[in-house]
Design goal:
Radius of gyration: 20 Å
Order of helices and strands: EEEHEEEEHEHEHEHEHEHEHEHE
Helix content: 25-40%
Number of helices: 9
Structural class: alpha/beta
Distance between the termini: 13 Å
Largest sheet: 7 strands, mixed
CATH architecture of the largest domain: Alpha-Beta Complex
Number of strands: 15
Number of domains: 2
CATH class of the largest domain: Alpha Beta
Length: 326
Amino acid sequence: MRAIRIDRFGGPEVLTPVELSTPDPAPGHVLIRVEAAGVNFMDVYARTGGAGYGRSLPFIPGAEGAGIVEALGEGALGLHIGQRVAWAGVPGSYATHVSAPLDKLVAVPDDVSARDAAAAMLQGLTAHYLSHATFALKPGDTCLVHAAAGGVGLLLVQMAKRAGALVFATTSTEEKARLAREAGADEIIFYTREAFDHVVRARTANRGVDVVYDSVGKTTFDKGLACLRPRGLMVLFGQSSGPVPPFDLQVLNARGSLYVTRPTLGNYVATRDELIARAEAVLHWMRRGELKIRLDRVLPLSKAADAHRALESRETSGKILLAPDE
């Protein structure tokens, strides 16, 4: 098989195309021919050896994708060869083949493409747990979504509107603002031109929002706290600008007995039933046209370094996928 391997931590240049032996599926696993693999910021953190994301060298990055079952390991019941599946949380997905545990796989409906399924898994499931569990939005709630034109952002805005919430969205360009509006954002804030905390306060009669969904981290966290109503919730689910430094918890008291959580997808799909419920909801909305997946670009597997450069440059709107080289 062909794969991308990381032999040392560093910049995008450490993403090296290699040829390896195709693995035999272990017991309870299936061998999948990968049709598309998702590119996510967690892959960047793993590549750089970021705290909490570091893996033992060498390793194949990537944790999300979709493909076709080619072989079944012992005890891998319930799937068949030729079946279309998708996954999130399966290491080694930047490859033409991956051996995946049965309990991580979701069947892909015939009318959902492999690329859409791959793009929907990690980010779609993330948007689902954020809007339906971490802070279960309901009609009349208010939320602030950072990086609203990103992969999670566009899906989260759509799900928030579907739940009946008023959505404030931060973006950096007119084009990204257009995409966020199309997804359903009610209020657009250009964070490069205006102080988003002041804008939120002004547009909520100084009340603040019920919840802030922050995937950016270091550069937005403090001002995000200033956007919250008393007893509001800061949901820090990423750190694209860097990790949030330690801070005095007394700040939460001074700003209105605020709450802060740092969730991760794994804890919200901890059981097979929960994984299936979230995945089926996301795929159902996609099939009905109620949830739109935006593919920013699809690059050959060998161009994984270019995919990381594009993601880190903030030049993307929506999802980046890797597909096997022709």
